[in-house]
Amino acid sequence: MSNTLHIVGGGMAGSEAAWQAAQMGVPVVIHEMRPKVETFAHRTGDLAEMVCSNSFRSDDDEQNAVGLLHWEMRAANGLIMAMADRHRLPAGGALAVDRDPFARSVTRQLRDHPLITVEEGEITALPDDGHWIFATGPLTSQRLGQAIAQETGTDALAFFDAIAPIVYFDSIDMSQAWMQSRYDKGETEEERTAYLNCPMTRDQYEAFIDALLAADKTEFHEGETAGYFDGCLPIEVMAERGRETLRHGPMKPVGLTNPHQPDVKPWAVVQLRRDNALGTLYNIVGFQTKMKYGAQTSVFKMIPGLENASFARLGGIHRNTFLNSPTLLDDRMRLKSRPHIRFAGQITGVEGYVESAAMGLLAGRLAASEILGQPLPPPPQDSAMGALIHHITGGAEARTFQPMNVNFGLFRPVEGLKGGRRGRKDRYKAYTDRAKAAWRGWLEQAAPAPAQG
After folding, report:
1. Where is the MnmG N-terminal domain (predicted)?
2. For 4, 23, 237, 347, which has the most beta carbons within 10 A of its beta carbon?
């Protein structure tokens, strides 16, 4: 049997899996259907293209589970984090990246690697032999999705991801808007002014909600249902849950002072985050939507400061397919019915760029270690990656399984620490200290991947 590892899908998970396996000395073939077979959301043929937000979320590795996942990926010399750091944009305490140079850099690193080959074309069936990782993500092609469903004996589960719009900076009225990160968070002035803020009065907010609720929405095809992931709800769905929902969500006015009217407290605030290094593009934070294009432009231009906005991209909606991993995958991410096949990334039921890349990192290392005849144990449950993979492959309730972001609720309690909000800071620090020690120990069991140059 060939010792080549085949990886289907060149997104965050597939790219990271390929890098990890190749760095361990295993030859890799990445099978990517783009650009021959296009998708609704992708614009290029680059690997690791970011199709939604340009943020990897919090970079705090002591008080935030996502930041801890960043730390673990960096400790494993992950390609995705190395390229994200190289193309970092100011975003307060978050890690946001310049999306196009980021994807081009990931693509270049993989194509230039002597053990990695990229083959363009669609894989439509599950192979009978070899070493495979399927990391086809939320936009798994219809024919491959049918093959997976036939093998697993179940209909593919699905929810819908909505994409937020992007605005040209020079079309924003800065006499109304201002630059400030919430609570002035960040170590530099650039970080403390990483977000663009558009304030609303109560009357403006109420009119905006009325327009949002009345706007024309994308219609679903017959037989489709919209089971949204709560971490990525379209704004109109949030508004339908209550008129105050947005004001306590992405439009919350806390931690911000309008320099144009410092004595006036905004009723709500719309935030935009820089989307490229030039600062010419800004995405509207939390404003993923399924409104029709014409409705989007009219509704979003009701936001103070965006009355004359020009949009580089309007929002959209796409289907996201994922497995019922607790019933189908083992603790090494292998398909129980065909152990030579692993799954990684969002199709396993994790949500977010970081989580997807992390599952790719694990799948790549686990597969490579088996090929090399030195199989690794599953990652320790006390690490962030271990907590996440434990959840999706057995810890979650299979009957109600839904996509999951990494969070401290997935971690085993640390004995002797105070519960509740008051003890949260000490508790989170204990989680992250324990996780880092556990992760270092697991990494030492594998041939270390060379540092990214």
Report:
1. 5-374
2. 347
